[in-house]
Amino acid sequence: MTQSRRKFLTTSSAGIAGGMFWTPGVMAEQLTVTSKLAEGPFYPDKMPLDTDNDLLLINDSINPGIGEVTHLSGRVLTANGSPVRNAVVEIWQVDGKGVYLHTKSSDAEKRDANFQGFGRFLTDSKGQYYFRTVKPVPYPGRTPHIHFAINQGGKRVLTTQMLIKGNPQNEKDGLFKRVKDKKKRDTLLADFKPLAGSAVGELQVNFDVVLGITPKG
């Protein structure tokens, strides 16, 4: 990894997302636990050589993945608002052409070779995580979404998906329709907003994940 990219991965998240993060002690009520949603068949069957939190650049490549650049940040919390530190957040999604990093994904031969497709991030002492990726696009049978897995102590503690709030395809999505409770549905939706000051139309989205467990360590 080049020095410039290493600097991006360690400083950009604080600069872009820092203002959106939660301050301990501000939550008096229990939070709604994030609803589970299926892993699906396209968790990578062969991990990429690069699994960091910048999905737009693979290793030291200068050619970025194609799509609407999105800065994805949030926190992993317990239901009482306590941060969950040292949790491994994994995300995976289709590229700008609607293709997963999976050998059985439809149109696999058209996959964007410059898009990482999968990334990991270890939460800090405040439960914060950050990824640079692209806004998800639909593919046959599914509304746009990003898959999430939260791991703690080497064990998967939550598998879910983040959908785009207000996307009309959500109400036709078979998996989303299985979640009947509105509060639970709301835990799966996130706003994609223009990134202030971006000259190239970048987006930002905040997605907090609330676990129904007691954090370790």
Automatic annotation (TrEMBL):
Molecular-function GO term, any one: ferric iron binding
Signal sequence bounds: none
The family this protein is said to belong to: Belongs to the intradiol ring-cleavage dioxygenase family.
CDD domains: 3_4-PCD
E.C. numbers: 1.13.11.3
A Pfam family per the record: Dioxygenase_C
Lineage: Bacteria, Pseudomonadati, Planctomycetota, Planctomycetia, Pirellulales
Keywords, comma-separated and alphabetical: Dioxygenase, Oxidoreductase
Keyword Membrane: no
Listed InterPro entries: 3_4-PCD, Intradiol_dOase_C, Intradiol_dOase_core, Intradiol_RC_Dioxygenase, TAT_signal
Domain Intradiol ring-cleavage dioxygenases: 72-100
Oxidoreductase recorded as keyword: yes
Gene: pcaH
Protein name: Protocatechuate 3,4-dioxygenase beta chain
